[in-house]
Specification:
Layout: E1 10-12, E2 15-17, E3 22-28, E4 31-36, H1 47-61, E5 68-73, H2 95-105, H3 107-113, E6 119-123, E7 127-128, H4 130-136, E8 140-143, E9 148-150, H5 164-172, H6 174-183, E10 186-188, H7 189-195, E11 200-201, H8 205-217, H9 221-234, H10 239-255, H11 258-270
Parallel strand pairs: 4-5, 5-6, 6-8, 7-9, 8-11
Antiparallel strand pairs: 1-2, 3-4, 9-10
Length: 272
Amino acid sequence: MMPWEHRIGYANGSNIMASTEVLLDRPCDGVAVITFNRPEQMNAVRPSTVSAFIDVISSVSGDIATRAVILTGAGRGFCSGMDLSARAEFPPQDVPQATEWMRELFRGAVAWSELPQPTIAAINGPAIGGGFGFALASDIRIASPQARFAATFVKIAMGPDAGLSHTLPRVVGHAKALELLLTADTVDADEALELGIVSKVSADPMAAAITLAQRFAAVPEHVSRRIKATLQRSASADLPTAISEIEVSAQAEHYCHPEFFANAGRWLNAHA
């Protein structure tokens, strides 16, 4: 156990249950850390991992005391995507059946992308395939110098999943995304920084992520959640709509909150 860890298992409804595949830690007030914990498999995801991951996300999503959530991997890797050995549990039958299985397998990526709190990926090592997708589904990404990114799907005659068809071109552009998907080339930490895949490279990505998460946790809960929601809604809107509808609606909510008037009053008194 690392010095910052305070292991509490994972939540399932109102009960706290033991989990070995996904861990939930509380290193400090307002910050939750979710860890994929299959280090011998480079944190590959199988159906039981998905179920545990979704339970953890459900436990933190509605918790107003949790202001920021960090995702990382145990051991040397962040996440290597789908555990290919799981295919033995679901032998191919037909496309409709495979569709339902795939949808179930990647519910975790959907749940992670929908968390209302700001999310940070502390990428401690390789993020491969769907693991690359989990990283890009995070709001902010901080990488170790040992981090590597690769969309290796074509090597097994598959296409992108875990949201990469949506997130990758938005981060690196259509041309570079297509290149990475068709070549399965590996991107190291320095190139990832240049491409905007990560915003920072740190010798200790978890420490850097916790420091940033603590700053997020200092922001009022209703403000940080609404800012994230505003950015998400504005991403698919034109500029006039973003200004006159999305931002105006959010600012009106902020304006009518008692905390705004209290803070505005203090600012005016200090600058009188």
